[in-house]
Amino acid sequence: MEEWVGLKWHDYVTRQAMGEFPEYAVHLKDEARTLGVMFRAMGGDPALSLVTAEPRHFQIRRRFLQKLAGTHRKFELAWRDEESLRLPDRLALFPSRKVNRELYLWLAALASLGEIHHHSWLHGNQAMVQELLSRWPGLEPMYQRLVKHTLQWRPEPDSLRGNEAKREAAIRQALIHPGSVDDLPEALTDPWPVVLWLYPVLGRGKLKGQIIGDDNTMSKSGGLAKKRKRRRAERVDAFDKDQGLMLFRLESLFSWSEFIPIDRAGDDSEEEDADAVADDMDMISVSQDRREASSAIKFDLDLPSEENDDLHLGPGIHLPEWDWRRQDYREKFCCLQPLLSKDAVPSPLPEHLNRSAQTLRRQFSALKPLRQWERRQLEGEELDLDACLERVVQHKRGIGEVDQKLFRQCKQNQRDLACLVLTDISLSTDTYINNRQRVIDIARDGLQLLSEALTASRDPFALFAFSSRRRDHIRFHHIKSFDEPYNDTTRGRIQALEPGYYTRMGAAIRQSIKLLQTRPEHQKILLLLTDGKPNDLDLYEGRYGVEDTRMAVQEAHKAGLTPFCVTIDEEANEYLPYVFGSSNFVVIKDPTQLPGQLPKLYMNLTR
């Protein structure tokens, strides 16, 4: 263990001018896992991003830094806002690796209590230190150690003059005895940074620091931004079902539409030009090379005309949406429109699925209800001969109470469960995964095979698909209800599914919850098939969309349902543990395996 070496303040200044103490440096990327565990364990917001802090400029008189060129210094200091926790990329302030690491731990613990504002920097930090030490007395030795080293790092008040000296003395007093200082004397220069405290937000807007665990570098080619391969986000150990510090920024998980260089409205209820922004994206031309030929693919995002659209099943259903910024629901904020395809033609099972379907029917038929005789019933279809014989023996011996249950009855043993399958058919499902298959083709095959299996097991099931174009038009496609039989009509509706618009997932889940709650079965499963994260044209992107979907999943749990997500999104491990919980989703790495894996996942889920 490294020991304190007793350096003077001027020695510190000299070492900092040469790069501080690089031999004792501790890096944020190496401590991220531990910091995440500590942050959430102390009650910090589990959805915050962990980002490297941007340097802050401090104006300090030249005469105090005689060995430095210039009067301005840059320091990376800790701060947080409602979306991110900012910590220095590395800490090498002290000649001890242990102390530098403890500074990271202290700042993460302090940040778990909240955000600091400009008007409360002095009082707020002192109050937070007091509260943290009262909650967690075990941190007291570490804090005292950090204060001792920090005071030696700071300039001596005797080396300063006038109000600068008084201010430094007051800061030292506040560090040693938190809560004892009310005001700082005004001076012409900035105070030497207090590395044990949090600082106010450094501007609002786009992140400029590095997001730990997520390479968000972008490149541009032909005027269209394209995403480079990114590192997978690092998640903390023992990721709890509903908690965890996300070591990446949700807004950095770009959807297809986010690559388009068009200004987007932040909130269609607050921005007057939200509709205009969305209309700008209605017609988009994307150049794409395919088989060594350059061709232009044009996506028309206008809604179909009334005569060409699917059949509307009613006037629309108004649903709430969770606004994480307000920490409240927006009642009747979304309009969901149930639709029925009018172009679907009753069709048999596609020929290439026949062999797989036959195997699944044989396997799932073992799960179907069996007729079994239940003995010793008060009434039934016929006499239970064994019970009658025992009654005669009891009567002749005159012992015990005469049994009146002399019948047997044949009953059907039902699997007491129902399943609703909700499929994402957003625009991204039009993507080709090989030379002949798109994501939508794989999804259709998966629905076909799963339906064949569930029909063989006689489990009640329903099929729906969804896409969206802003909050006032969420398309909810009716494929099969619980009461409808699975036949060629249903198969035709599945084969008629085509890529739609965007992915307002929360509203679709809430409507599915309503439908499942009407079922009498004890176990109710909501199975979601998707290929990407929640996303829409308006404010429904980034953290907003993820938080609303997470709240909808929690509503499903509270309603007694079992929500489970199956996805082919390679980046799903970065956000689905936060949305569904660590054990309530699965990622299919090879999309072509989805049709065959889906029935197996269902069987494992219902055992």
TrEMBL record:
Q: Where is the VWFA domain?
A: 424-605
The record's section on InterPro entries has: NorD/CobT, VWF_A, vWFA_dom_sf
Domain of life per record? Bacteria
Q: Which PROSITE patterns match?
A: VWFA
Region forming the signal peptide: none
Protein name as it appears in the record: Nitric oxide reductase NorD protein
Q: Which organism is it from?
A: Marinobacter nauticus (Marinobacter hydrocarbonoclasticus)
